[in-house]
Amino acid sequence: MFLGEGPLAQLVEHFHGMEGVRSSNLLRSTTFDGVVTGSNVQTIQKIAKSLGVAKKLLKQLQIFMDKWIKENKIAGGIILVLVVVVAIVYFTKQPTWKKVGTLSERITSEINPIGAFIRVGEKIGENDRTYILNDQPDAYYKGVLNDVYCSTELLNNIGRIKSDRKVENLFIRNLYGTNNVSLETFTNYIKQNNIHCLIIDAYTTYDPNGQASGKLTFLEPDKSYQDNWSFFEK
Fold first, then answer.
1. Residue range 39-56: mean pLDDT, rounded
2. CA gyration radius for the chain?
3. Where in the chain are the domains?
C-alpha cells in the first residue's frame, strides 16, 4: 500500500519539470524501464494525483482506526469476557461422559470387531478426547467399530480375519510410513509388542500417469486401541 522507494515513488517525486524518467530498481515487482516524454507526462500526472489522494485516504483511515482502538479498549475487554462466558456455558451444558470400562478389560480370546464390545448406552473413544463423544458418529468412528478387531489370542486369529475380510497384505507402520511384510515378520511384531488389536485399512493406488487406479487394503497391528480407548456413558 505504501510507495516506499520503488519506481512508482520515483515517478511521483520527480515527474515535475522532467522530460523523462527511468527506473533502475530491479528488486520490486513493478518495473518501469522506459523514457516518459511528451503526451505521456499528463497521464503520469493523473496517476500521481490519484496516488496522492489514496495515500491521504489511507492516512485518515489509519488515524481513525488508532483512535477507535484507544477509545474502545473497555468495549473490547467486555466483548472478550462475553466470548469466554459463552464458551464456558456451551461446554458446561454439553453432556458429560463417565468412563465405565476400558477396551483392554473386555478383550477376550474370541476375535471381535470393537463394535461388539459396546453395551447399550455406551460409546467408545480415546481417554483424552471424550469431547468427541458428543458428536454424531462419523465415518472414522464407524470405521473403528467395524474395522478394528481385537483378541488376546490375536496370532491365532489372523488367518480368520484375512479370510473373512478378504485381505492379503500385511503392513507394519514405522517412522517412514508402512511396509508390506511377511507373515512371519508380522506375527513376530505382534508377539514382541503384546498387541491385541488389528485394523483393516486401505490407501489409494495410482498408475504411472498419476491417475487413481484402485485401493490397496491391508491388515495392520495397532496397540493404541487397547492402551488408550475406553467405554463411556452419560
1. 56
2. 33
3. 7-74, 98-233
- Tell me the C-alpha distance between 102 and 104, whole Å: 5
Say if residues 197 and 149 touch (Cβ distance below 8 Å). Answer: yes
Chain Cα centroid distance, residue 134:
20
Contacts with 148 (C-beta within 8 Å, 6 or more apart), sequence order: 113, 114, 197, 198, 199, 200, 222, 225
Q: What pTM does this model have?
A: 0.58
Q: What is the pLDDT of residues 166-183, one digit of tens each?
A: 999 999 987 566 788 999
DSSP string, 59-107: HHHHHHHHHHHHHTHHHHHHHHHHHHHHHHHHHHHSPP-EEEEEHHHH-
Per-residue pLDDT tens digits for 59-98: 777 777 677 666 676 665 666 567 666 665 555 555 588 9
